[in-house]
Amino acid sequence: MDRAWLFSVLGLAAFLIVAWALLTYGLPVVLPFVLAWLIAELMDPPVTWLVRRARMPRALAVAIVLLIVVGVMGALFTVGIAYLVGEIRSLIGNLPYLYAAGLDLSSQLLVYLEEAVGNLPESIQVQISENLSKLQSNLGGYLEALARRLGFVTSVPGFLINVIITFVATFFMARDRREIGLFLLSLFPAKWRDQLRQVKMEVWNNAIGWAKAQAMLITMTAVVSTIGFAIIGANYVVLAGLAVGLLDVLPIVGPGALYVPWILYSAFTGSWGFAVKLLIVYASVSALRQMLESKVVGDQVGLHPLAVLLAIYLGIKFFGALGVLFGPLITILLKAMITSGLLPIFTDEGRKR
User: Fold this and answer.
1) Do the beta carbons of residue 302 and residue 310 sit within 8 Å?
2) Total domain count, the chain
3) In this structure, is residue 165 part of a structural domain?
4) Most buried among 104, 115, 142, 236, by the most CB within 10 A?
């Protein structure tokens, strides 16, 4: 067996194991400080501009930019919540009607399924019954898990403490950015430092590019869907558009998780015209996203769309829903470490060592 190939495989396996352990067990512990670092990095350009152009002390520039960030986020959150509350109230007012319509639709589907299953061989009927029982038990487990996850609402004080810690840490990280960076570099051997700087620069640029690409695609999906809903006369336009944008984060399923049930519901309740209109909006959004995705992701990140898809798939397998974020980030980090020579695997340089 080629020793260089074996070294590359072992190096890749070690990198993936360490990345998995850090993200699974380390990240939850230091999450406020990771968020603080991200915010501090994003704040650095305007802070540096104020220091150079306005001749401000860095601490004052950081405080001003941080106050602006907090103010803008608070204003957007307040206005957005206020608008959504109106649509949610309207939706709640229509829940009795929607509930009754849902019961009627489900009864019709059950009658149809009973008639269809009754004509099948007995062995297939037994298999379908077993699968439905498994689905019911699994759904109960999923709902219990969802209820446990939503329990964070009861821990609001802890959440507020984390928010406060995040913004306080952001101030100190943004103010002493250079000193903290030099200290962290000093923890590594001198021969690694140039490579680590290169890795940081490449990872940051590619990660920001990937985030920009995803934000562009999600925003496009939400905006186009909202406009489409308004044109076809749908209810809860903003709420539905926002939901579509959030669902666009999910791989494979994506906006279809809202569009498909809505289309089927409209068709089964006799609103065929509205169902066709929804289908046209869904097809338009999907086609536009597919045309833009490859170009946007490729231009911003420098990764082949197939590599991004594989990274998301493996990320979901190992990290669950957060794998949508972690998978591409690990891929970007791996690419940067190989390019810089810090992890010389599957390269000509690595084979010569």
Assistant:
1) no
2) 1
3) no
4) 236
